[in-house]
Design brief:
- This protein is mostly helical.
- Helices cover 55% and strands 11% of the residues.
- The longest helix has 19 residues.
- It is globular, with a radius of gyration of 14 Å.
Length: 94
């Protein structure tokens, strides 16, 4: 499983002006992210994330590496992240 990180902030073309794309760029500017993590945090479909990553890669703005976390271990952590997101958003007044 590959992880991606931005090497420089991109000038995003109009198709990528949505908040979800800016969020992915922000996440990738701070840490390495997998496609699954990007899809989860952005709310976009995996294909849309793949197109965005491909565009950034074609412009030479990404560094990629093999994930340090084995894929089986990564998938076992995902339900915890979903639970945390739901728990934090279930009480918006707090």
């Amino acid at each position: 499983m590959k992880e991606y990180r931005l090497t420089a902030w991109p000038d995003l073309a109009p198709p990528y002006h949505r908040t979800a794309y800016r969020r992915m760029a922000s996440d990738m500017s701070h840490r390495f992210m997998t496609l699954a993590q990007l899809a989860d945090t952005s709310g976009l479909r995996r294909m849309e994330v793949r197109h965005f990553v491909d565009m950034l890669e074609s412009r030479g703005l990404l560094v990629e590496r093999e994930s340090l976390l084995p894929e089986s271990q990564f998938w076992s952590l995902r339900p915890l992240g979903g639970w945390l997101k739901r728990a934090m958003s279930s009480h918006p007044g707090r």
